[in-house]
Amino acid sequence: MSRKQATVAVDVGALGARGDGIAHWEGQPLFVAGALPGERVLVRPGKPRGEGREAVLVEILEAAPQRFAPPCAHFGVCGGCAVQHLEPAAYAAWKHDQLLETLRRRGFADPPLLPLESAPPGARRRARFALAPARTGLAPAFRAARSHDLVIPANCPVLDAELLPAARALAGVLSERGVLELEVTRTLAGIDAMVIACRAPTPDESFDLADIAERTDLARIAWREEGRPPYLLADRRTPRLNAGAVEVALPAGAFVQPTGWGEAAIGARLDAILPAAGTVADLFAGCGLLGFALGPQRRVEAFESVAAMVAAARQAAMAAQRNTFRATQRDLERSPLDAAELARFDAVVLDPPRAGARAQAEALAVSAVPTVAYVSCHPGSFARDARTLADGGYEMLSLAPLDQFLWSHHLELVGHFARR
Ligand SMILES: C[S@@+](CC[C@H](N)C(=O)[O-])C[C@H]1O[C@@H](n2cnc3c(N)ncnc32)[C@H](O)[C@@H]1O
After folding, report:
1. How many Å apart are CA 31 and CA 55, to the nearest integer?
2. Residue 273 and residue 315 in one domain
3. What's the confidence (pLDDT) of residue 329?
4. Which domain holds residue 175?
5. Which residues of 269-289 are buried (b: 16+ CB within 10 A; e: fewer)?
6. What is the per-residue pLDDT for 5?
7. Which of 263, 305, 376 to mutate to test the pocket of ligand 1 (most atoms within 8 A of CB)?
8. Cα–Cα distance between 312 and 300 in angstroms, integer?
9. Nearest CA to ligand 1 atom 4
10. What is the set of active-site residues?
11. pLDDT for 64-93, tens place per residue?
12. Ligand 1 center to residue 296 CA distance, Å?
């Protein structure tokens, strides 16, 4: 038996950032997916990862008392979820500790963390699927854990119940060549779908997709060739979401928070953090869903780089006669609001993409804005930008971890900063 195939018994000491159990063997860490702290496990060491190696779990010799029956039959094979095998309190402690560690690396020794709030199962209203060959056409799939394989889920406890059936119907009429992904979003008008491909649809695909939209009552189907704006193959109802009293018509490909639960939880935190009235800048605003939810008593100026989302926000404001809301197209990475422009705001909300808001955080750090609410889907870039704000004289007053990426290693955050 080669050394690579040999199994070894190891003790698992911790749960790592990606949900792997961490053991030690021959002086190096072993990352064991599916293993929990406190367990003794038989593993097969595999390929190098970082300063150690990945190892395949062969057998649990002694199980941890916190081990939990995973709610999904695909857990361990599907790469969508990292930690379903840990009882809820220990799971919350793991997310909390990962966040704490990320913040400590940026010099926040004792950050003011609020308790983790978690989305319920089935809350995910938007999903992007890979596509795998199926008996007829393609099937919606998730990428497997630690490989390039695809897993075709029979069901998924994370997703809204309407997403997978809609994705199955659509994928079934697609031909494999040049079709990359399928995104489905549940909106108040029904399912909004988009095929992402590196070619145009064939005449059969165009016909069949439009036919499915009729038969299964989908709101809209768009097709997006990489690098080009999406175009519509079925346009039965305009997909829309509500933010307070304002209804927003979503352009194809618009950003929406992955769960309605998350959008409401972020909104509740913002309401608690921001002054009850005054002028608020909503930066990286998308279609303005967070900004509209702040209500008419706050004057909101929204900034966003994607023209279609700015237009959607303006249209929504006009239709709702929300004359306290204004939307402007602007690239905030190349051209952040500077200290002089920021001077007119009582508070700033920023909700950048995963890369964070390096340039805008640097501009805020030298501004006089009294209150900053930083919404983030990436604790690493959040911690970097929080350091910039802290070095500029802001104090982090609270940080709310919102688990809208249930059972994954991802986390949504809302941080409250005030000028000292
Ligand atoms: C995480 S989303 C938040 C959207 C919105 N706050 C919401 O909750 O619906 C980030 C948004 O930032 C926008 N964005 C990305 N890069 C940007 C940039 N350089 N300048 C301005 N907006 C940008 C994206 O188009 C996207 O709408």
Report:
1. 6
2. yes
3. 98
4. 126-235
5. bbeebbeeeeebbbbbbbbbb
6. 64
7. 305
8. 15
9. 286
10. 377
11. 999 999 999 999 999 999 999 999 999 999
12. 22
Q: What is the average per-residue pLDDT within 219-229?
A: 94
Question: Using CA positions, which residue lies closest to atom 6 of ligand 1?
Answer: 285
Residue tagged 């905030």 (tokens): 332
The percent of residues above 90 in pLDDT, for the chain, comes to: 95
Do residues 349 and 280 touch, judged by C-beta distance below 8 A? yes
Inter-CA distances, 171 with 56, 129, 158, 203, 406, Å: 32, 10, 20, 15, 25
In sign, the C-alpha dihedral spanning 59, 61, 64, 68 is positive
Would 87 be classed as within a structural domain?
no
For residue 181, being part of any structural domain is answered with yes
Closest CA to 80 of 156, 191, 183: 156
Q: Are residues 229 and 370 in the same domain?
A: no
Task: Give the ligand 1 atom nearest the CA of 332.
Answer: 20
Tokens standing for residue 285: 């605003």
Is residue 37 within 8 A of residue 29, CB to CB? The reply is: no
By the 10 Å C-beta count (0-12 exposed, 13-18 middle, 19+ buried), 135 is classed as: exposed
Angle between helices 203-216 and 163-171 (to 10 degrees): 150
Amino acid at residue number 357: A
What is the residue-averaged pLDDT of the chain?
96
398 class by beta-carbon count within 10 Å (0-12 exposed, 13-18 middle, 19+ buried): middle
- Long-range residue pairs from 145-150, CB within 8 A, at least 24 positions apart, any chain: 145/33, 145/76, 145/77, 145/78, 145/79, 145/82, 146/33, 146/54, 146/79
Is 285 close to ligand 1, i.e. is its CB under 6 Å away? yes
Mutate to test the pocket of ligand 1, among 289, 304, 381 (most ligand atoms within 8 A of CB): 304
**How many Cβ atoms are within 10 Å of 164's Cβ, its own excluded?**
18
The pLDDT score that the predictor gives to residue 1 is 42
148 and 106 in a common domain: no
Q: Which two tokens stand for residue 280?
A: 């608020």
Q: With contact defined as beta carbons under 8 Å apart, do 75 and 363 qualify? A: no
Number of other CB atoms surrounding residue 4 within 10 Å = 10
In a domain, 155, yes or no: yes
